[in-house]
Amino acid sequence: MVETGMVRRVDELGRVVIPKEIRKTLRIKEGEPLEIFTEKEQLVLKKYSPIESVLSYAECVCASLNEMTDKIVYVFDTDKLVCASIKNKNIIGEPVAFETEKVMRERKSSLRTKTDGSQVPPAFKGEETEGVYSRITFPIVSGGDVFGAIVLTDKKGQEEFTKQEEQLVSLCALMLSKRFE
């Protein structure tokens, strides 16, 4: 636990103001849901991730899409990577990269392909993109709210995704979005 030295009083309605510095650091935006629970003698506020609430389903979607396409699959909530088809547990929890965040914010799919001398942008911060040839990202949207994104990544040299692969990623994003209706 990191102590900030900040103290806030509970008002007559039971409210506590979370300092702006902490909201900025944790990327907590106005209107965002927080999970509230106790742990031993402590009150804990945690950003609520709807994708994590259906994590086992997201992991099945991720594994199935990987099996059908033989491509790397990532599933993100709005802040971080929650599951991946590659068995590197060190990447789970990595913050979402700008490009993936932009796709979610714009609520439109994105197809990025390596061109002469250029790199495909990372899907999450710290991702090594050497050898990534193409990437398609679909946001997971339900009722106008963005819950995350599915990313399909090709490292085998195929420059373009097939129409069927694009439709599969779109279908998987739609299936996950239906869990929030």
Could you characterize the architecture of this molecule?
The chain has five helices and seven strands. The chain has helices at residues 20-25, 50-53, 55-69, 98-106, 163-178; strands spanning 34-39, 42-47, 72-76, 81-84, 110-113, 134-142, 145-154. A hairpin with a 2-residue loop joins strand 1 and strand 2. The longest helix has 16 residues, at 163-178. The mean pLDDT is 89.
Order of helices and strands: HEEHHEEHEEEH
List low-pLDDT spans.
none
Straight-line N-to-C gap: 36 Å
User: Which range does the strand content fall in?
Assistant: 15-25%
The biggest sheet, with number of strands, parallel, antiparallel or mixed sense and barrel status, is: 5 strands, antiparallel
